[in-house]
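In response to reviewer comment 3 from the previous cycle, which asked for concrete evidence that the modeling workflow produces usable outputs, we include below a single protein chain processed end to end. The sequence was submitted unchanged, and the resulting structure tokens are shown without manual editing.
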Amino acid sequence: MAHTEPDASQSSTTFLQRAPEPAILRPAIGLLATLAGVSFMAHMLVAGNYGYFRDELYYIADGRHLQAGYVDQPLLIGWLAALMRVLFGDGLVAIHLIPALACALIVVVTGLMARELGGGRVAQLVAGTAALFTVTFMGTGSLFSMDVLDELWWALAALVLLRLLRRNAPHLWLVIGAVLGIALLNKLTVLFFCLALALALLVTAERRFLLTPWPWLAAGIAFVGLLPYIIWNALNGWPTVEFWHHYGGVGTSPLDFLAAQLILINPIAVPLAVAGLVYYFRPAGARYRLLGWTFVFLYLLLTLLRLKVYFLAPAYPLLFAPGAVMFEQLHPRPLFAWIRPAYVVLLILVGMLLAPDVMPILPPATAERWAQGSLSQVLADRFGWDSLTRTVERVYAVLPPAQRAQACVLTSNYGEAGALQQLAPPGRVPPVISDHNNYSLWGPGTCTGSVLILVGYAPSDIHGVHTFYTNITRAAVDRCRYCVDYERTLPIYVLSGATRSIFPRLWRMLKHFD
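The workflow returned the following structure tokens.
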């Protein structure tokens, strides 16, 4: 009898075969759409409150300098800022459309993750509610920034991964690669998720996928999203490496990192998250254990590297979804039947109580009392920009005509520079420059440095400044009650009578990537 070689595709299929995929219930579209609508409206109702957040001003400036990358982030947020300016303008309400929509989608995706795990209407409702009232998501959903988009891409990748595992559909690795590629156009922190997922593949039975081309093709697709940033860095002397050297480690202890998560996740959601992690390591969750190990490795990586506490936030839906499934399966005795609805109500109430700490809901004086102290940075960094702009306008207006013709404003950080560029009417302030992050690469432009209006710096901060200028005058002091500490009292200096050319020596001296 002639020997017949097995077909390669059949061999691969046989290798990847597992138990039949579990049945899942219909998605609770109405419930999830309602939760998403509540999230979107809540953010849009406060979208015009307070003022621009510091980073928002910077991203708007990025949108006026379209590049393949920036010192501190890939290209996506700058290009989105440019798109929003063309379509809707760059007013407060307009720029907050994107984060409000992204936050609403996170709610839906988290609910659908619970469905992929076999959860019914209750599980989808609880998972979506947990995402809706997550403190971090409420805060990032009110800011035009990379963070809320980062959280959305992680959630989408996890949803596709759950479907891949449930259906044993290795071709879905290609979709995961595409999502991660988009995520890498937005923020580099998704690389930690990729590394944690790779480690999880090695320690679980899903390492079988590594013997197929699918995850490797996914990695190649994701790399395409990173490629523009690599090329841009190579052409500009690798500024992002220098940025991360100053930015990455913040010295957070493992205990502080854990304590921060208990607040950022919403304290009432902590039992749900713990139950979700336990789910992956129970027999019922064996099919999806890859995600459990992914979270464990991610937590360990971020803790050991002492990175920002909120870097873990995009992984919360990984826990909410299985935790909600376990919640749905909980059937207390009739005497204690009230526990389940009471828990959901408490989750909502505590989330609402914590919302004013991260969203511009209350008048600033009330919010300050609510916080029992200073405003959180996510709120405080929205104040002071109008006042600063008016102060600089007044200083510029009283300069002698000869000095006005030569003047430019040098700020200590991108928030101050972005505010003056965004808020000052044309002609009311001179050209604005800064040596902070991408402003440093944009350079001083036409500014000669003959006359500088110094914002955020004291003359003593600039080594040898007295050898450059014969006249150094404190022209004004801008004060802000609700600002972050280092912006509350800003002296404004005028430097004139330059004795020699100050650029590029001064430019190199002041450059800071952080």
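The CA atoms of residues 85 and 91 lie 8 Å apart. We consider this sufficient to address the reviewer's concern, and the full set will be provided in the supplementary archive.
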